[in-house]
Amino acid sequence: MRADVTHDPTNCSPVPGSPSYLELFHSGELLERVREAYRRLRSCDLCPHDCGVDRIGGERGICGAGLLPKIAAASVHNGEEPPISGDHGSGTIFLSGCSLRCRFCQNFPISQLGNGQELTTRALAERMLRLQRQGVHNINFVTPSHYLPQILASLWLAIVLGFRLPLVWNSSGYEKPDALALLEGVVAVYLPDMKYADDETALRLSNAPGYCRSNRLAVAEMLRQVGHLRLDERGVATGGMIIRHLVLPDNLAGSDETLAWIAENLGRETHISLMRQYFPAHLAAETPGICRKITDDEYERAVEWLETCGLENGWVQD
């Protein structure tokens, strides 16, 4: 980024077809949300853990996050669902830390060991702009919930510098509707997990108290904000929601119950990414019930449940 170029924020007025966050920027609403989000860091209540730590003062809660955003990678990624990756890839930014402690997490060095680099919100904005220059379809924040304030601040700074891409919120789904409300009109596509249908299993495998209610309220709020998935003429997502569900051994994910709840409460038009890539990563090998891969029969049974529920939109894996 050239240091001799200046940018005039008064030139950020929205035009037809531009991201809706430009309207929030132009009205001053986006800046007010940045301020409100940072106020919540004084006694952090961004996720259902409600740790109450003073992150501005240097304290850290269950997620391990402090005041500065911390990222493990920012790169072009082509391995997401087709409407996210498109032909040119998704600009994927992996945030370090996580509000869950999944014993089978495949990204545990990032989510639980905290691998990554702390940087300023200005530096994060520059990463977003760098990916935009590489021609990606969107900026895809992975495990972002604990850095919601910093992401809003980085977006505000990036807009001033010419950022215009849609945002994807690629999250665990263990979130709070009142925190998600700060993202209304900011996030174009929500990509949440629905991991469990049983709170006891969620607590044992992911240290997530009250998971089911929190998760279901969160995805309902996401759907309220963005509606069902919408694509452009290239098949790239312009808005909406895709729910990811990872099939676990012995149906510990409660796939039948979760898929039935989605069909009944969110609608059969909901897009589902039914994932079969489970393997015993991290602490799973020593955890009863999840110490093996899923079988072909277990995944095929989940596909049958998907069809029985009338959920015809989305993706299954070979």
UniProtKB/TrEMBL annotation:
Gene Ontology MF term list: catalytic activity; iron-sulfur cluster binding; metal ion binding
Highest taxon listed in the record's lineage: Bacteria
Cofactor: [4Fe-4S] cluster
Residues in Radical SAM core domain copies: 93-227
Keywords on record: Iron, Iron-sulfur, Metal-binding, S-adenosyl-L-methionine
Cofactor info, note text: Binds 1 [4Fe-4S] cluster. The cluster is coordinated with 3 cysteines and an exchangeable S-adenosyl-L-methionine.
Residues that hold [4Fe-4S] cluster according to the record: C98, C102, C105
Any one Pfam family match given in the protein's UniProt record, by short name: Radical_SAM
UniProt xrefs under PANTHER family: FORMATE LYASE ACTIVATING ENZYME, PUTATIVE (AFU_ORTHOLOGUE AFUA_2G15630)-RELATED
Name of the protein described by the UniProt record: Radical SAM domain protein
Originating species: Pelobacter propionicus (strain DSM 2379 / NBRC 103807 / OttBd1)
